[in-house]
Structures are given as C-alpha cells and as structure tokens.
Design brief:
It is a single chain. The model has no long low-confidence stretch (mean pLDDT 89). The protein is built from five helices and three strands, in the order ααβααββα. The chain is 61% helix and 13% strand. A hairpin with a 2-residue loop joins β2 and β3. The relative contact order is 0.15. The chain has a three-stranded antiparallel sheet.
C-alpha cells in the first residue's frame, strides 16, 4: 500500500514548528492589525496608535512580541523608532486571513 503523502522529514517538521511560532505571534487581533498596517509601509508607534485607536503602551507591548518573533524590525528615525515587516510574506498571510474571515461573515 503506497501513499502519495511525503513523509515528514526533520527539516520539514522544523518548518512546521517555525510556521506554528509565526501563527502564535499573530494570534492576537491587535498584532494582526499591526502587521496589516505595516504591510502598507514603515510606521512609527504614534502612527499605529492613531490608526488602531489603541493605547500606546499596548501597541508597544505587541510590537515587542512581534519583534521577538522576528516578524517586525525597528530602525531609529530621528527621535522616533520606525517599524517595518521583516518579510512581506507575513503581510500576505494576514491579508488572506482577514479576507477569509470577511467572506465567512457574509455567509
């Protein structure tokens, strides 16, 4: 009896682990919103606070989580710190998830 499914190799499993870590980092709605905003370009904390309507300490806390997960990076821009996505693929994942959720709410 043969199977068309390839066995999970160590490197394949490691990719699943990394994907799980990414999805855990995106598990909070505010982090999804932050990634969606950063998908449009670099933003400073005050810009994210204004756009999301969330308190600055909360936005900063979630940015720390996203930085720790390797989803966003920061760069000093004068007196401010600007955040951007490390990999644009994450913006696509978030956009697809939001689109899927919206489609599900219309049925």
């Amino acid at each position: 009896m043969s199977s068309n499914v390839a066995p999970v190799t160590t490197s394949g499993y490691e990719a699943y682990e990394a994907a799980g870590e990414l999805l855990r980092a995106l598990s909070a709605p505010i982090r999804v919103a932050i990634v969606a905003e950063l998908g449009a370009g670099e933003r400073c904390v005050h810009e994210l606070v204004e756009k999301l309507g969330a308190p600055q300490p909360l936005v900063s806390q979630h940015l720390r989580v996203l930085r720790g997960a390797g989803v966003v990076r920061s760069a000093r821009r004068g007196r401010e710190i600007a955040y951007s996505l490390v990999d644009e693929h994450v913006a696509h994942i978030v956009a697809d998830a939001v689109s899927h959720a919206r489609e599900g709410s219309r049925s």
